[in-house]
Design goal:
Pfam families: DUF443
InterPro entries: Tandem_5TM
Number of helices: 4
Number of domains: 1
Structural class: mainly alpha
Distance between the termini: 70 Å
Largest sheet: 2 strands, antiparallel
Shape: elongated
Low-confidence stretches: none
Keywords: Membrane, Transmembrane, Transmembrane helix
Strand order of the largest sheet: 1-2
Length: 145
């Protein structure tokens, strides 16, 4: 049993030594101010893409239905079940925590892989909004004004 632990540790150290050259390749030598600007631009990019997709989906929705004919009431969209709501909320908070952590990594270590990871998690975070309202029948409640 001790031999397998030693072998695993040796392989880990060997791979770590091989990967140090690769991690140095992705390092960006910059100041904290530049890293903050990069993190802010990543946030703005994600907000811009999310807004553009939201506007596009709204326009496609208005092409399908005639909004001027329908009544303009506010509705509350209820989740399918409490379990579904908790699952979606958990997924959202997990993506949010990892997204904020990756932005902190972008600011502190200034690595290209951290930037790519932050962008990926930001897009996943904006996609999770679609999980709340499932395809098919959705229970709604009309809100009184």
């Amino acid at each position: 049993m001790n031999i397998s632990i030693l072998f695993t540790a040796g392989v880990g150290i060997f791979l770590g030594n091989l990967l140090t050259a690769l991690t140095d390749y992705f390092y960006i030598p910059s100041t904290t101010l530049v890293n903050n600007i990069i993190a802010a631009s990543v946030m703005l990019l994600i907000i811009l893409v999310h807004s553009l997709l939201s506007i596009r989906n709204k326009n496609n929705f208005y092409k399908i239905i005639a909004p001027n004919i329908l009544s303009k009431d506010r509705i509350w969209i209820r989740p399918m079940s409490f379990k579904h709501f908790v699952q979606c909320l958990f997924i959202y908070f997990c993506f949010l925590v990892f997204f904020i952590a990756s932005l902190v990594l972008v600011i502190t270590i200034s690595n290209i892989l951290a930037i790519i990871f932050a962008i990926f998690l930001g897009f996943c975070l904006s996609i999770t909004n679609a999980l709340y309202v499932g395809i098919g029948h959705t229970t709604v409640k009309f809100k009184k004004k």
